[in-house]
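Changelog note: in this version the structure field was regenerated for every chain. One regenerated record is shown below for reference.
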Amino acid sequence: MKLKHLSFLLLFLTLSSCYNVVKPNKPNNLISEDNMVNVLVDMAIMSSAKGVNKSRLEKNGIVPDEYIYKKNSIDSLTFAESNAYYAFDIKKYDVIYKRVKDSLTVIRDKYKAIDTKEKEEKKIKDSIKKANVNIDKGINTNPKSKKK
């Protein structure tokens, strides 16, 4: 019997604790949605950089969060309040994060294209260098012009 009462009490407390979720007030210094997207894109990029080049960032005295806040002319409190405000409305937050994802995809594709172009240019330079070495050695690299 006590177990049954305890179960109902726990159920009641659980349900009542979830009921009082209050929407945060709109901050006076709310970051616009466009700027929020920019901040979140910067944070995603910086997070990736921290994972790959943490020692290089530390060596250059870069503190990632401080760098992002300074770049976007905000402070940590402004970001936290704006983030909490937008996060309360799941649909709006989802739209913001889709924009972040789209921006990151554009950036990734841009750098992939640059990387591909650089690899192609390197391949051409390596071919020319190899051909020049073969010419210097007197080796004919054109199979059609070989004498029988």
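Spot check on this record: Residues 26-134 form one domain. The chain has one domain: 26-134.
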